[in-house]
């Protein structure tokens, strides 16, 4: 099972307004992915959540067997 791709789209308008959109992240993971950008850019004045935000994140589990068991 592969890891789904996450992407941050950044748009800087002529007036200097910066917009971020996260694609491929479910739930509050998008907030974790953009936290460093929000801290670097300054105050967040508006936030809109996409449908993906309200979806439950999926967890990936790997099982590794060593030996003859």
Structural account:
The protein is built from one helix and two strands. It has one domain. The chain has 69 residues and is an alpha+beta fold.
Helical residue percent band: 10-25%
The overall pLDDT average reads 84
Number of helices: 1
**Count of the separate structural domains:** 1
Low-confidence runs? none
The largest beta-sheet arranges its strands as: 1-2
Radius of gyration: 17 Å
Instruction: Count all strands and give the number.
Output: 2
- Category by helix and strand content: alpha+beta
Order of helices and strands: EEH
Q: Tell me the distance between the termini.
A: 23 Å
What fraction of residues sit in β-strands?
A: 15-25%
Principal-axes geometry comes out as elongated
What can be said about the biggest beta sheet? 2 strands, antiparallel
Record keyword descriptors for this entry.
69 residues; elongated; alpha+beta
Fold blueprint:
Elements: E1 7-12, E2 18-23, H1 29-41
Antiparallel strand pairs: 1-2
Task: Please sum up the structure shown.
With 69 residues, this protein is α+β, with helices and mostly antiparallel strands.
